[in-house]
Design brief:
450 residues, 5-stranded mixed β-sheet, disordered N terminus, 7-stranded mixed β-sheet, alpha+beta, 16 helices, 12 strands, 15% strand, Cytochrome Bc1 Complex, Chain A, domain 1
Length: 450
């Protein structure tokens, strides 16, 4: 049933974070945010988190998988590897294996359909060095065939791990790829054509994509007393602007299903993907809230998944807003996807019958609004004081919202999220619509089936 309007106190708390500041804005959660753009187009965002264990620096570029030419799947990953690891200025080459020692608080290299994001988390004392090296990389890395060969090898190994060797990653990717119409044969061939990428071509693509006008720089952590604007201007202000790339189009997904054998699974495993409404749909903020609530409900009612899976639900609203993923328990050794679909649809029906009170909706709003740029929860603040991962997540999500749709869109989205009174049951028909579902089931080899 529809919920009552959100409590005024919570509305004011969340809406405070949706104001675009001309200068740093203090929020009720004790953090403060700042937003500005350099003359060369680099979008800069900061969030001061008092008492944080360090500072996370995220650099995001419109250089995701959507930039891959046909037949060159993996090129975006290769370019990101080169930008992150090749020599730059006085900085020598490094490998991904070096990063845990260089950045013990954490690091990340993420390439999704739209963006490539590089994250390094360091102490306050390390921040000037991190920014200096990142500035050198934006001025241009040194490329040669050995560096390109190493990047190709790393990406091919990662493709094997994420598509075949690690079931949780394979299922995550396969749901999207099956909905995009990619066959198993095409999946196995991904990365095969990367040898055609030459150092000259890689140089040209880096010069085109990894430029200030196509990027966002985000700093999240304890920034007390640091002259952040001066530091950023000093390291990045003179970097040539380049040209901003257009935003990648929405993924085109088609209802479909696939039953496959995967050697790395030990028991039958399945996933159901649901196609979301367009982000621009006025009901999408209510849909997002409803999916977070339904996902939590599924985690409770389906129980813990078999490792290495860690959750029954995933919705990466900045990375792949088109697709919501669910992982119901699957019947052993099934030769059909239908039992998995039936189990999912049954849970949708049961959840649609659950009463949604104002208090429950408010609790979920308060717990997840930070993802959209709202105030941090006490739990996130505690984590930020002792671990770098929380800071890294805040930095990468901030970078994503900056480059994907932009702050004005997400500020308005957060305002609608705060004020929606639409109950999750509204989306019952959408979730159960077979024309909006993609279903994948993995079985182990016949010799190891239950």
């Amino acid at each position: 049933m529809p919920s009552s309007p959100i409590r005024p106190a919570l509305a004011l708390l969340l809406l405070a974070a949706s104001i675009t500041p001309a200068a740093a804005l203090d929020l009720p959660d004790s953090t403060s945010i700042d937003r500005w753009r350099l003359a060369n187009g680099l979008e800069v965002r900061t969030r001061h988190v008092p008492g944080a264990v360090g500072v996370a620096v995220a650099a995001s570029f419109r250089a995701g998988r959507g930039t891959d030419p046909a037949g060159r799947e993996g090129q975006a990953e290769v370019l990101a590897q080169l930008f992150f690891t090749a020599p730059a200025g006085e900085h020598p080459a490094r490998t991904l294996a070096d990063l845990p020692a260089l950045r013990p608080l954490g690091w990340g290299l993420q390439v999704d359909p739209r963006l490539a994001t590089l994250t390094e988390i360091g102490s306050r004392a390390q921040l000037p060095g991190i920014l200096h090296e990142l500035g050198a990389r934006m001025r241009g890395v040194t490329l040669d065939e050995p560096a390109l060969k190493a990047a190709r090898a790393t990406v091919r190994r990662q493709f094997g791990e994420s598509r075949l060797q690690r079931p949780e990653l394979a299922m995550h990717h396969r749901l999207r790829e099956v909905a995009e119409g990619i066959t198993d044969e095409q999946l196995l061939a991904q990365g095969a054509a990367l040898d055609k990428l030459t150092p000259r071509e890689a140089r040209a693509m880096l010069d085109k994509l990894y430029v200030p006008s196509n990027a966002a720089l985000v700093l999240v952590g304890d920034l007390e007393g640091l002259e952040v604007r001066r530091m950023v201007e000093s390291e990045f202000g003179a970097v040539p602007a380049g040209v901003a790339s257009p935003e990648a189009p929405a993924l085109t997904l088609t209802a479909s299903s696939r039953l496959s054998t995967l050697a790395s699974v030990t028991k039958t495993t399945g996933g159901v993907g649901v196609f979301a409404p367009a982000l621009e749909d006025s009901l999408h903020p209510a849909f997002f809230l409803g999916m977070m609530m339904f996902g939590a409900w599924c985690n409770d009612h389906w129980g813990k998944p078999t490792p290495p899976f860690t959750s029954r639900f995933q919705y990466a609203i900045f990375e792949e807003p088109e697709l919501v993923r669910f992982y119901p328990p699957a019947a052993p050794g099934t030769a059909s996807i239908q039992p998995l679909v039936d189990e999912f649809n049954l849970r949708v029906e049961l959840f649609a019958q659950v009463s949604t009170t104002r208090l429950i909706m408010d609790q979920f709003r308060g717990n997840v609004s930070w993802i959209l740029g709202g105030p941090l929860t006490p739990s996130i603040l505690r984590r930020a004081a002792s671990e770098g991962g929380a800071l890294g997540t805040l930095a990468t999500t901030t970078a994503a919202r900056t480059l994907f749709k932009g702050d004005a869109f997400w500020d308005a989205y957060l305002e609608r999220f705060v004020s929606t009174t639409v109950a999750p049951s509204t989306f019952y028909a959408l979730l159960n619509d077979p024309h909006r579902q993609v279903v994948v089931v993995f079985n182990p080899p016949a010799s190891r089936r239950e």
